[in-house]
């Protein structure tokens, strides 16, 4: 074996963000030939990240279709990757996290008897339907993987409890911290003028994100109603909500928050402006998974708009609290952070459990070691 051929497969914006530093590390290693294949499960949002990190895919399946179902995504990824893997003949396929592309990519590699490396392995919520379908995607990908890159000790323990051999688990930290530290700038200026005109010094800016399938309907109505009440009670609060492209999310957002003073409904942001908006915000309300890892690295308290999280390390560390999906609790926890400095400082200054920005380096070193280089 002259060089280890590693093919990275991803399809969504969060995967791209977290895989970008790994790909750059792979490209910089003289003993590795790096191949990149994107499925474009999310086309537009994916391309933004590829441009930011200057990654040019070798293969692009371009599977995205309006209103695509999980079954359609899975089948198109499987069929598309079969031909790519046969052509590339990689020694290892790398997949990330918990998307449908992740599971289908691991399964496609297994069908070709190619080894799988799972970046961000071992996350578990304990509820197979929350997050849906991500929880099962993680578990199934884990059963197909040869190397498991676990961000935290808790993730490693989850894998061990499922019978994964300790020799195949590598404790790395989370690659999102590697990516984040590359793009946040003290003097960052936004393209959207509204974001530059917000008084981040004297206003308490809340960044809101909401998009989870399991929150559609009643839970999302509760979330948006809570945000409306918070802004009505606190004149020094401004909310910025990059509204997800989902038609259901957008309809509810504009119905409930569209006319609310001090709520800025904006289009989804590219990764660099979003990361810098996190850095400038006072606190964050989110049902996202990745933000629970990123915001603590920036010293920003996070209230999770879900009933459970597969990132319990953040809760244990004190950087994150589970706010749930009931209006009264969301309002109460937000009010506490807005008005009790000690509570706020306790969360803002807690130690981030997700690493030191060297996860990508550890990942690549483990791959090289695995192949005896």
TrEMBL record:
It is an enzyme of class 5 (isomerase). Its EC number is 5.1.3.14. CDD domains: GTB_UDP-GlcNAc_2-Epimerase. GO terms for molecular function: UDP-N-acetylglucosamine 2-epimerase activity. The keyword 4Fe-4S does not apply. It holds the Pfam family Epimerase_2. InterPro entries: UDP_GlcNAc_Epimerase_2_dom (IPR003331), WecB-like (IPR029767). NCBIfam families: wecB (TIGR00236). Belongs to the UDP-N-acetylglucosamine 2-epimerase family. This is UDP-N-acetylglucosamine 2-epimerase (non-hydrolyzing). It comes from Thermotalea metallivorans.
